[in-house]
């Protein structure tokens, strides 16, 4: 007996390896439309992606105008995928699963970061 598994409908793609929703380009664009943000990625200066169940940060390369990024209360395992966020000033990553502070060197204007309620045991790389 085999059960056919239907691809879930909605705005999130499932990531087989990470067992959670993906931060896909399609998801972010649809989310921007729903939040009445710009549909041209580079024009957005804020992005609210909290409480979505993401396990990694990805597909933000086109969002080069971001100044504030909200990613709290997800399942993010690692700080990554922010290399093109040269304008980012505030990054909210509290209540995730991050173990190490890393990959912030390409964020020259970053002055506020919230990493509380993660699994960081040693403050380094700041």
TrEMBL record:
Pfam families under this entry? LRR_4 (PF12799)
InterPro entries, per database record: Cilia_flagella_integrity, Leu-rich_rpt, Leu-rich_rpt_4, LRR_dom_sf
Which UniProt keyword terms apply here?
Cell projection, Cilium, Leucine-rich repeat, Repeat
State where the protein is found.
Cell projection, Cilium
Family to which this protein belongs: Belongs to the DNAAF1 family.
What's its job?
Answer: Cilium-specific protein required for cilia structures.
- Which protein are we looking at? Dynein axonemal assembly factor 1 homolog
List the gene name: LOC108564813
């Amino acid at each position: 007996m085999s059960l056919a598994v239907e691809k879930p409908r909605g705005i999130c793609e499932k990531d087989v390896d990470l067992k959670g929703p993906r931060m896909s380009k399609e998801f972010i664009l649809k989310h921007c439309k729903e939040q009445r943000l710009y549909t041209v990625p580079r024009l957005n200066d804020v992005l609210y992606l909290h409480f979505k169940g993401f396990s990694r940060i990805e597909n933000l390369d086109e969002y080069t105008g971001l100044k504030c990024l909200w990613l709290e209360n997800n399942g993010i395992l690692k700080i990554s995928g922010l290399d093109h966020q040269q304008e980012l000033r505030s990054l909210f990553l509290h209540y995730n699963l991050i173990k190490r502070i890393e990959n912030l060197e390409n964020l020259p204007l970053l002055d506020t970061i919230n990493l509380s309620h993660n699994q960081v045991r040693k403050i380094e790389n700041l």
